[in-house]
Every structure is written in C-alpha cells, then in structure tokens.
Amino acid sequence: MERVGRAAAASLFGLAIGDAMGYPTEFLNMAQITAKFGPWREMGLPLSEGDIVRVSDDTQMALAVGEALVEASGAGAPAPGTRRIRGTRDAAAAATALTPATVEATLRKHFVAWLRDPDNNRAPGQTCLTACTDLERGLRWQDATVLGSKGCGANMRVTPVGLIPGLSAEQRAGIAQLQAALTHGHPTALAASDLTAHATWLLAHDCPLADLLPRLRAYAQESRHTYHADWLGDLSAKAGAPDPQAFIAFGWDECLRALDTTEVALNAMDPERDPSEAVGAGWVAEEALATALYCFLVVRGNARASVMRASHSSGDSDSIAALAGAFAGAKHGLLYWVPEWREALEYKDRISALAAVWDNAA
C-alpha cells in the first residue's frame, strides 16, 4: 500500500480542527448545541479570541507525544527557547532510535512540560494531571500511572504514533501502548490506544472504508494475548493481573465489544442521530474510538462532515471529533481542510513543523 501524500499534516490538522469544533460543545446537550451552533450540517469552525481558534488539551497532548517521539528519534529537535521543530533527516532510519528507554524518557519530559505549561488551562483530565505530577517527582512510570483509569486521555493523543514512517508493527504497538500507560494503566486504555494508532496507520496507507472495521477487528483478535513486555515492563503485575496475557486480553476484549457497538449503529445508517446515543459518550478510551469511527463512517468518510457530526454530540465531543478528524485527514489528505481553517488554528506552526518531519521522510 502507498502512503498518502502529506498524511501527517492532514491527520494532525484534522485532529486539531475536530478538537477545536468539539471543544465549545463539550458538556452541552443536543438542544443546547443546536441553539448555539445550529444544525450539525451547518457547523463552522468557532473563533475563540479574535481570529484565533482555540483547541483543548487533546491537541496539546498529541503535540507533546509527537514532539517527544521526534526528539527521541533524532529526526528533529526543538530550537533553543522554542517548541518548534527545525531540521529533519530520514525519519524512517531514525525510527531505529525509538526504543523503550528513549521513548519513555522523552515522553516523560514532554508530559511534564505540558503539565507546567501556562496554557495547560483547558480543563485537563485528573488522571493526566495526577500521573504527570508523579512522573515529575521521578517515580517509575509503572508507579506513577493511574492503574484503574481507562479515560480517553490515553488515546486522544496517540494519533502521531500511527503517522511515523519506518516503524515496525511491534514498535508501533509498543509505543502506542506505552504513551497511554504512562498515565492510564488500565489494559483497555492500552488496547484502545494501540487500535487507534492502527486505524490511523491503515487509513494513511489507503485502507478502503469498507475494510476498516474488519481489519481493526482482525488486529484486535490477533493482539489479544500479546503483552509487549519490553515496552510495558511489570505493569501487569503492578495491576494485580494473574498473568500478562490475561491482563492485556481484558483490554482487547473491551475494544472488540466497542467495535461491535459501532457496527450495530452503522447498520441503521442514521447520521441524524446523536453519535453519543448511538455508540457511546466517549469518556473512556474504547468508546471514544468507537464513536469517532462511527462519526467517520456514518458520513461515508466525508472529511468535514465527520468532524461536524462528531462535534455535534452530547458526550466528550472534543475527543470524539479530534479522532474523527485525524481519521479523515489520514484518509483524504489536506484537500478538505481549507487553508482558512488551518491558518486560524492555535498551534498551527507546531502542527506544521511536526508533520513536516514525517511527511518529508515518507
């Protein structure tokens, strides 16, 4: 399969656009959203302050993951005094530098930087705040993570992992699960993050829409008993699981049930129904993925309709729309994200710089 041109830019901008559209609708019911923003098919990109469109912690943490992985690989690095990425080399070759030790260290560094960033004022989740505080204290990440949490904060930030060229399948899975596990130690958070990254990778490599759910289901079934010990260490033992395979299988089984829910909802093919009612509110990881997939597929992959439908939902609308936008961008490229939308986005320069590292090397 051929990689879609500029897939990283398209997917990351899609994530931020979806996040920005869903951010002001989160915590509103359907009647309130319609009264404020109109019908879902007419939603635009809301301006926050002047001409700036603000995003939530979903985009902030996705950038933290992406920039950490670029730094760990040596494919590019933030210039002194900035967080923009300058200079690139072959990211496919640089993927060999992404080992459990280097990835953990740079993720820790960037998560702590996010924790202390004055712009971290977008009602971030308590799990991320608690775990990042303990990471800053220097605890082993297996001791810092919140073992019982499977919140969507684990996979709303994983999109960059599915966009890095040159990773092996084992690396992609290991990194996706590790970035989740640093804060969310529940096996479903790990499995849902892995599955989200895999969905992004499939779409960036031109997976037909009709094949997406079957291929995700097959991947989940194949992964049920694979515990990536090199990446996760003794996490399963810390969680009190009888064995590593049973620990991770629990998470994959919850994800398989979530895919079932998506498939059942798609059989009705009713794009006018509240996605959070049709599939799930998305506050937990497997539901955020399942509802985002529904929003993407119920409009037959239409990019802008995907984020409009996702953001016009009664659940965790910013996370659902961020993932739907990431999927749409990975599939379709930059064509449907109009320049006016991209230019208005907060962090547009960081998104462009991060994406250029991988798009230039692909």
Plain-language structure description:
- The structure is a single chain.
- The chain is an all-alpha fold and 362 residues long.
- It has a single domain, classed as Orthogonal Bundle (ADP-ribosylglycohydrolase fold).
- The protein has 19 helices and two strands.
- The protein has helices spanning 7-22, 30-37, 57-73, 91-94, 100-116, 126-136, 141-144, 169-181, 187-204, 209-223, 229-232, 235-238, 244-268, 275-278, 285-298, 303-311, 317-332, 339-344, 348-361; strands spanning 77-78, 85-86.
- α1 (7-22) packs antiparallel against α19.
- The chain is globular and about 50 Å long.
What's the short version?
The protein is mainly alpha-helical and 362 residues long. Helix content is 60%, strand content 1%.
Name a few traits of the molecule.
ADP-ribosylglycohydrolase fold, mainly alpha, 19 helices, 60% helix, globular, 362 residues
Write the element-wise H/E pattern from the N-terminal end onward.
HHHEEHHHHHHHHHHHHHHHH
Question: How many domains is the backbone divided into?
Answer: 1
Mean pLDDT: 93
CATH superfamily: ADP-ribosylation/Crystallin J1
Topology, number of strands: 2
Q: How would you sum up the global shape?
A: globular
Low-confidence stretches: 77-88
Structural class: mainly alpha
The span between the termini is: 13 Å
Strand order across the largest sheet = 1-2
Q: Strands, helices and their partners?
A:
Layout: H1 7-22, H2 30-37, H3 57-73, E1 77-78, E2 85-86, H4 91-94, H5 100-116, H6 126-136, H7 141-144, H8 169-181, H9 187-204, H10 209-223, H11 229-232, H12 235-238, H13 244-268, H14 275-278, H15 285-298, H16 303-311, H17 317-332, H18 339-344, H19 348-361
Antiparallel strand pairs: 1-2
Helix pairs in contact: 1-16, 1-17, 1-19, 3-5, 3-19, 5-6, 5-8, 8-9, 9-10, 9-13, 9-17, 10-13, 13-15, 15-16, 15-17, 16-17
